[in-house]
Design goal:
chaperone; 5-stranded antiparallel β-sheet; cell cycle; 4-stranded antiparallel β-sheet; single chain; alpha+beta; Chitinase A, domain 3; 3 domains; isomerase; Alpha-Beta Plaits; Trigger factor, domain 2; Trigger_fac_C
């Protein structure tokens, strides 16, 4: 078989395959033989249909098409094997099938054009002496106090309040019913339209502004027990329920009871109540160590991300479609697994209409992930960076001991994952040693992220959901 190779864009190899006359005739005759044994033609038993009748009834075009399908599949497979091409994904036919049928004559040579994706060549223009900037995340001592205060709030005792009006910080027990506020021009005598679901009895709410929609809490402040009041409020926009976003509302609220928090002292007894530590000093030291490490880890991650972003500016690689599609598949699979673990019905989220949109939106990230992986692999190859079997075995053992409850672990797969992660860690550490990453104040590179991180770091000041409080409690206890 004569095969001519051609380098194509998108990391493809073009193949021009010339199939010999003997093969084109042999395949054609074998197809006729197979059809003769299976064709149902009135007046003839299977396998006994005369050749001229078979050709007349089935038509030469149909027979040629069947023969061509075999010639194309076998021809491309043999060509890839013969030329030792490291193909990835499925080969693609470049010739027009219609043209092939018209040109196909059994007993004469046939030329087929195809293309196969191959691993891309990575050209690292530069990978040492890179210059980048990364945000330094500094340890904030207030996080320790915020965490302790949050735990203190959780252990608070609620004491009934008498003889005064509601104030910020109280716990109010209310009945309420909400309706849409009337708009200009609406009939004033008409009954207000109730808001679906905006009604409750003996509802307990902490009087902090961000515990409810704007206006609701401030309207309760100043009320006395047994008092009923109409409170104007406004649903924020955006809002979880899009039908309510931005809408003005009126709530009829009856204050039934007021309570205030009696907070425990922060001492050794408090430390023993919320953690496994005997003294407050030990608990504080543990939290300091945890948050310092967390800050150091975030800073290290920022340095790595900044360096990899800079590295990609110096990489030249033409990615094949197969790799991109495989990475998109992997990303969507990971997302589906994560959503499923959260109890969501993936089949309702990943519909046939939505999947193409998800795939398209994932392409940019998939391409960047592939480029990162290939670039790191290329650096490792050039600098002969490797992971030893002993290092892999030690990490695998550590993971198995860390998660003893996990059953049916595929150790071969785990070992492969560990090897890849350790190798990436080594390569990135090598890059950091041979480049310069300047640390700058947190938030100076990306104001949006500064706000997000600030909110996260100040979580002790912001009201938390019960679930978040539970997580915080677990965090301290496990310390």
């Amino acid at each position: 078989m004569k095969v001519t190779q051609e380098k194509l864009p998108a990391s493809q190899i073009g193949l021009e395959i010339e199939i010999t006359p003997e093969i084109t005739k042999q395949t054609y005759e074998q197809v006729i033989k197979n059809l003769a044994s299976t064709a149902n033609i009135p007046g003839f038993r299977k396998g006994k249909v005369p050749r001229p009748i078979l050709l007349q009834r089935l038509g030469t075009t149909r027979i040629k098409a069947a023969a061509l399908e075999e010639l194309i599949q076998d021809g491309i497979e043999q060509a890839v094997k013969q030329e030792a091409i490291p193909a990835i994904g499925q080969p693609q036919l470049r010739s027009s099938f219609e043209d092939l049928i018209n040109n196909y004559e059994p007993g004469k040579p046939l030329t087929i054009s195809a293309a196969v994706d191959v691993e891309p060549e990575v050209n690292l223009v530069q990978y040492t002496d890179l210059q980048a900037k990364a945000e330094e995340v500094k340890y904030d001592p207030e996080r320790v106090e915020n965490t302790l205060d949050k735990e203190r709030q959780e252990l608070a005792t609620l004491i009934p309040v008498e003889g005064r009006a509601a104030q910020i910080g109280d716990i109010a027990v209310v009945d309420f019913k909400g309706s849409f506020a009337k708009v200009e021009g609406e009939d004033e005598t008409a009954e207000p339209e109730p808001i679906p679901g905006a009604e409750a009895t003996d509802f307990q709410v902490e009087l902090q502004e961000d515990k409810f929609i704007p206006g609701f809490i401030s309207g309760i402040v100043g009320m006395n027990p047994e008092e009923t009041k109409e409170i104007a409020a406004q649903f924020p926009d955006p809002y979880a329920n899009e039908d309510l976003a931005g809408k003005a509302a009126t709530f009829t609220v009856t204050l039934k009871e007021l309570k205030e928090k009696e907070l425990p002292e922060i001492n050794d007894d408090f430390a023993q109540e919320i953690s496994d530590f005997e003294t407050l000093e030990e608990l504080r030291a543990s939290l300091v160590e945890r948050y310092q490490k967390e800050s150091d880890d975030k800073t290290k991650t920022n340095k790595q991300e900044a360096l990899l972003t800079e590295l990609l500016k110096h990489v030249e690689v033409d990615l094949p479609a197969t790799l991109i599609e495989q990475e998109v598949d992997a990303m969507l699979t990971q997302t589906a697994i994560r959503l499923s673990q959260q109890g969501l019905d993936v089949r309702k989220l990943f519909t046939q209409d939505i999947i193409p949109q998800l795939r398209e939106r994932s392409r940019t990230e998939a391409i960047e992930r592939i480029k990162r992986s290939l670039s790191l692999r290329e650096v490792g190859k050039r600098e002969s960076i490797e992971v030893t079997p002993e290092e892999i075995a030690a990490r695998v053992t550590e993971l198995l001991e860390q998660y003893p409850e996990e059953q049916d672990v595929d150790e071969d797969k785990l070992r492969s994952i560990v090897e890849n992660e350790l190798l990436n860690e080594k390569i990135i550490d090598w890059l950091l040693e041979h480049s310069s990453v300047e640390l700058v104040p947190e938030g100076s590179l990306s104001p949006a992220e500064e706000t997000e991180d600030a909110e996260s770091d100040a979580d002790g000041d912001a009201p938390q959901t019960e679930e978040e409080n539970s997580e915080a409690s677990t965090e301290v206890t496990e310390g």
